[in-house]
Design goal:
Distance between the termini: 38 Å
Strand content: under 5%
CATH class of the largest domain: Mainly Alpha
CATH superfamily of the largest domain: Cytochrome c oxidase, subunit III, four-helix bundle
Shape: globular
Order of helices and strands: HHHHHHHH
Structural class: mainly alpha
Helix content: over 70%
Number of domains: 2
Largest sheet: none
CATH topology of the largest domain: Four Helix Bundle (Hemerythrin (Met), subunit A)
Radius of gyration: 23 Å
Number of helices: 8
């Protein structure tokens, strides 16, 4: 992910690598292990699912470490040129675009549930008879905190932890921008300081979101079994949390590289790409905060 030296005049074609195969193996183990662990947890039985899941996560870590190491060594050895740098930039932009499409699909599901499914089930469009058969006591309101079996939960409000997390993530985007500007100005001390502050804010966000989930399960009765509201809430916030985790990992790697003396104002694509991703995650959270928590 880096284009630190453009010494090569030819387009660099890397040697064959085992890391894609190792990565596929890791993802397979994670999927298999997570599936079995979920079944075992639901049935309150003991099995091997958590061991397979742990092995998959470990293999994934090894793959990421090895692949990143190879990429950094290639870049630092002067094997990359400007054309390859453009390829990396286009690749990162397309990757972020694909993530935008993911979130648009999930937001689309949320709006479909709120604007079409709920009014339809409530008797809209001359559908009163069907609604009476499917769910006689249904009330067309959102958040939908009552399930068909009569279980009632509480909705997650926007004040408190959600608002604090929003402020934390917005501030982290500002601190990362300050760090990026410091890199372009060649101010290494300022770069290190504000990058570390960004990491602290990012991991604080993740810790508070974990606490929010505990609060939802323990105090509000809001779980994955809490009907369509619970499903959409955990789907959107959890998927975003996964992206924050990925962004925090990327910035952590950037921090190690910064302290190792990597990057300068002319050759810093890996840092810039990580910044793009973090700002994207920040914008998505603001949309999520409005559509999921406030509206």
């Amino acid at each position: 992910m880096s284009t630190e030296h453009h010494n090569s005049t030819k387009y660099y074609v890397p040697d064959q690598s085992i890391w894609p195969i190792i990565g596929a193996l890791a993802l397979g183990l994670i999927a298999f292990g997570a599936g079995h662990y979920t079944i075992e947890y639901s049935n309150e039985t003991k099995g091997f699912g958590h061991y397979v899941l742990g092995a998959g996560l470990f293999v994934l870590f090894v793959m990421l470490f090895g692949w990143f190491r190879d990429q950094i060594n290639e870049s630092r050895s002067g094997l990359y040129n400007a054309q390859l740098g453009e390829s990396y930039k286009q690749g990162m932009l397309w990757f972020i675009f694909s993530e935008v499409m993911f979130f648009l699909a999930f937001f689309g599901a949320l709006f479909y549930a709120r604007m079409i499914a709920v009014p339809w089930l409530g008797g809209a469009s001359n559908n009163a008879m069907t609604a009476e058969v499917l769910w006689p006591t249904f009330e067309a309101i959102w958040p939908l905190t009552t399930t068909p079996d009569g279980t009632t939960t509480q909705a997650m409000g926007w004040l408190g932890l959600p608002l604090i997390n929003t402020a934390i993530l917005v501030v982290s985007s500002v601190t990362l921008h300050i760090a990026h500007v410091a890199l372009e100005q060649g101010n290494r001390g300022k770069l290190k300081l504000w990058l570390i502050i960004t990491l602290v804010l990012g991991f604080t966000f993740l810790a508070l979101q974990g606490y929010e989930y505990v609060h939802a399960y323990r105090d509000l009765g809001l779980t994955l079994q809490s009907g369509i509201y619970g499903n959409t809430f955990f789907l959107l916030t959890g998927f975003h949390g996964l992206h924050v985790t990925l962004g925090a990992v990327m910035l952590t790697i950037m921090a190690f590289r910064v302290f190792a003396g990597h990057f300068d104002k002319d050759n810093q694509f890996a840092f810039a790409a990580s910044s793009w991703y973090w700002h994207f995650v920040d914008v998505v959270w603001i949309c999520l905060f409005v559509f999921v928590y406030i509206l």
